[in-house]
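dude i think i finally got it to work??
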Amino acid sequence: MTAQGIFITGTDTGVGKTLVTAALVSVLRFGGMDAVPMKPVQTGAARRNNRWYSLDLDFCLAMASLQPGPLEYARMAPYCFAKACSPHLAAAVGAYLRYARDRSGVEPETFALNEPDGGASILVPPEVYPTVLRLLAGELRRQGVRTRLALGDVGNPREDARAYLNPALGDPVALQQVAWVSFHSWCGAADDEYAAWAALADRLRLPLVVAEAGVDPDWQHAPVFRHDYAMREMAMYFALLTHARPQAVLLWEHSDDYPVLARDADGRFATTARWGLQKQWIAYTPRGSLAIGCNVLTGDRLDACAFVHGADGAGFTLHLGNRLGARICRIDKLPPAQTVLHVVQTTRDQRARAMGDVLPQNGELRIELPAESMTTLTTIPPAER
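look at this
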């Protein structure tokens, strides 16, 4: 090979030029060549320790395990500019939203880049993310679109994904058009990590939205029809509602990737345990419900969360998740006004089935929880749902 350099180009931003370059450098070095990456011009550069850094070059260097000194680095990235030069992408977003409004009467409340931390659609380095928010906000205003932005929409709820937001959190201008905070729940998180999202949303005085709720991101192989998968998903919902306290949870997704309905031998739709769980969450935790304190003192793998709802707050719902065998659950300190509660259950054999009523005595109640089940006690009559 006699060429002194290889120039990688592409048709647009985000099509994979940096990834191909990193792979090529790594392969050449593995083969014994003294290959190094170069970024002749970097827009949207990051400023650290009074020096400009190329985020694309940093990625290539990391992939090739290279650590050049300051002088050599400057030769690899000779021209760095702070301003990102991809306004056409923001303009495309604005034009699309304006078209949807003008032609179909649809104007979304919020817009988000899908998992920018991992590059599900477009990879945005954390240092560049505030600039992207500014570009999008400015373009939406210019086009007269009232849609605002979601902060985050990151790919998981763990600490590293939340830390991705730190540069944006330090930029008040970037946050001006943010309407809510968002994360995806793939693979779950510890209780304190969920609670940290609640604290962040409270600090910003913004709603928190779980924009993709799911357990297993392997959409091609996730065992969505197995009962143990339904129990894992149920446990995640309890953790989200108890510790993250979001204003909305959006199941990913009602499609052939993660269906809540199966097909029987004749090709007809049949309900699944996940369908029953979703019905109980949605039907008996109506919009505007307010979470109230609920402590679980009995046994292992038992989850609980409670809500009041209705215009006067007189409505009441208690969800109980039992991930072990059948057991008796004792409940006390129920609201004194609740003299009759309707029981709805999802088990291995039944889906959101109405099981009759129970009558608390002096705010106390004992109820049997079937094995691997979700039980809902509510003032909402099941016939209404």
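The mean pLDDT is 90.
im so relieved honestly
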